[in-house]
Design goal:
Pfam families: Oxidored_molyb (PF00174). The chain contains 5 helices and 10 strands; from the N terminus they run H-H-E-E-H-E-E-H-E-E-H-E-E-E-E. With 241 residues, the chain is of the alpha+beta class. Strands 2-1-10-5-6 form a 5-stranded mixed sheet. Strands 3, 4, 7, 8 and 9 form a 5-stranded antiparallel sheet that branches. Bound molecules: the ligand Nc1nc2c(c(=O)[nH]1)N[C@H]1C(S)=C(S)[C@@H](COP(=O)(O)O)O[C@H]1N2 and molybdenum atom.
């Protein structure tokens, strides 16, 4: 490795750049399946060696595919999980899991659609409407967008303020009538029902109100920022919301 570019030495970053480049080269559609295939063979191997049947609880069972652009993600629970809201707000906030559970919960049942093609019908999600958290923080007039960050340290997402205030956008605590497990982004993930599932950032830890949209992880790698199901990314799927 060239010592003039010490920042290029870290292998995790190098791997992310490699995957991202693949994604750009094929309009972003190749990248996720590459990760997915690795995970599926891992799951298949795990299932073969699992007399307890516990691997049946892994996400592949329900039609979901497991995705993470980070190679490892810390586990967070009721003791150490925090969700912060900051940026262009009057009252920056930090919520514990108990705080979020104490707020009014919304339940929605929608299809989940990944931009790579897989769809999971009629999936119940429960959590707190994002609009409620934004109102509690007091969004300033100069604000136009929201940026989401994750405790995997890598993934980011974004919405316009109008999109973020839709009633079908939530900070989800439960999916399929269970508390969100780690592999699905638990304890808390974003859920943007009308958009491709890449908008639904897993392991959500930060909500920052900003002036303008800053494209998220996959959006910097070729996916559409306005990710409406059936009306973006060159796809014609049935809308989900
Ligand atoms: N933090 C984080 N959130 C993420 C992703 C990711 O890699 N990291 N992948 C996205 C994509 S492309 C999809 S399809 C869904 C997958 O969610 P699942 O693993 O629960 O099926 O999460 C989205 N949110
Ligand atoms: Mo996806």
């Amino acid at each position: 490795m060239n010592s003039e570019h010490p920042e290029e030495r870290g292998t995790p970053v190098g791997r992310r750049i490699f995957l991202g480049t693949l994604g750009l080269g094929a309009l972003g559609v190749v990248t996720a399946p590459v990760l997915q295939r690795g995970m599926e063979s891992f799951l298949a191997g795990a299932a073969e060696n699992d007399p307890t049947g516990l691997t049946g609880l892994l996400p592949n069972g329900g039609g979901f595919r497991y995705y993470s652009v980070a190679s490892s993600v810390p586990h967070k629970n009721a003791e150490n999980y925090r969700l912060t809201i900051d940026g262009l707000v009057d009252r920056p906030m930090s919520y514990t899991l108990a705080d979020l559970r104490a707020l009014p919960q919304t339940r929605m049942i929608r299809d989940v659609q990944c931009v790579t093609g897989w769809r999971v019908p009629d999936t119940p999600f429960e959590g707190v409407r994002l609009s409620r958290l934004l109102d509690a923080a007091g969004v300033r007039p100069s604000a136009g967008a929201v940026r989401f960050t994750c405790f995997d340290g890598v993934y980011t997402e974004s919405l316009t303020l109008d999109q973020a205030r839709r009633s079908d956008v939530m900070v989800a605590l439960r999916m399929q009538d269970k508390d969100l497990g780690h592999s699905h982004g638990g304890p808390v993930r974003l859920y943007v029902a009308p958009m491709y599932f890449y908008k639904s950032a897993k392991w959500l830890s930060g909500i920052t109100v900003t002036e303008d949209v800053r494209p998220g992880y996959w959006e910097e790698r070729g996916y559409d920022v306005d990710a409406w199901v059936g009306r973006s990314n060159g796809r014609d799927d049935e809308p989900t919301s």
